[in-house]
Amino acid sequence: MNEITIHGNLTDEPTLRYRPSGIPVVSFSVAVNGRRFHRQTNHWVDKAPVFHQVVAFNGLGENAATTLAKGTTVTITGEFVDDSWQPEGAARSGGTSCSPRTSPSACGSPPPRSPR
């Protein structure tokens, strides 16, 4: 298993769906903003954000859908799955984290949403 841990902010509200078998599946996107120190200018420089698609299942998925919101800072640990697709003739690829563990970050997160 290719396990990764990412730390970033949700870019949109989580989307909760149910498979025909009744299994809940939530998906959301996390933006990770990196920085590096530029020694010549002696300043920190922001890198371009990297976006990760995250999918969680069962109780974790339902919990994520009710407690996470756009802008929430999260730490995600899960399996990295390399995906590729071809919308309108242009080949695309990206990574998806199938997350067995998702948690709001203790630093800078907005309060959790109230239950629906």
Descriptive terms for the model:
116 residues, mainly beta, 5-stranded mixed barrel, two-stranded antiparallel ribbon, 9% helix
Short description:
This protein has 116 residues and is mainly beta.
Q: What is the general shape? A: elongated
Number of helices: 1
H/E series: EEEEEEHEE
Q: What proportion of the residues is helical, as a percent range? A: under 10%
Oligomer: single chain
* Largest sheet entry: 5 strands, mixed, barrel
SS class: mainly beta
Uncertain runs: 105-116
Across the major sheet, the strand order is: 1-3-6-8-7
Strand % is over 45%
Distance linking N and C termini: 35 Å
Write down how many β-strands occur, each being a DSSP E stretch of 2 or more residues: 8
Q: Calculate Rg over CA atoms.
A: 16 Å
3D architecture notes:
The protein is mostly beta strands. 17% of the residues are buried. The strands form 2 sheets. It has a 5-stranded mixed β-barrel. A two-stranded antiparallel sheet has the order 4-5. The protein contains 1 helix and 8 strands, in the order ββββββαββ. Strand 2 and strand 3 form a beta hairpin.
Give a topology summary.
Layout (H helix, E strand, L loop, with lengths): L2 E8 L4 E4 L5 E9 L2 E4 L4 E4 L3 E8 H10 L5 E13 L6 E13 L12
Parallel strand pairs: 6-8
Antiparallel strand pairs: 1-3, 1-7, 2-3, 3-6, 4-5, 7-8
